Amino acid sequence: MTAIYGDLIDQETRCIDYHGPTDIVALKCFACQKYYPCFKCHNRHEDHPFEPYPQHLKKDKVVFCGACQKELTIEDYKGRAACPNCDHPFNPNCSRHYDYYFTDS
Ligand SMILES: [Zn+2]
Ligand SMILES: [Zn+2]
Ligand SMILES: [Zn+2]
Fold it and tell me: Among all ligands shown, which has an atom nearest to the Cα of 72?
């Protein structure tokens, strides 16, 4: 059972900030290694800003799909329109926020 923090409103990891039909992923902060549904939730609950996850750590599971409750790697998630496990569509707007969640360094 993976713990998801933040202000969740349902089992599929929607939160008070992002709760559209495709808002089903939680992301892990590199600093605290906790899953949050979004960086806003993280920053309300932690005393540090959300730290993006380094992309070279390809084996680390850093994305949690709320639809199938499985953890994904950055490669599993990035650039995909849907979850590779359960085919639930991801929010296409999330790609605009990649910089908040993943870093090249
Ligand atoms: Zn953190
Ligand atoms: Zn949130
Ligand atoms: Zn899934």
Answer: 3
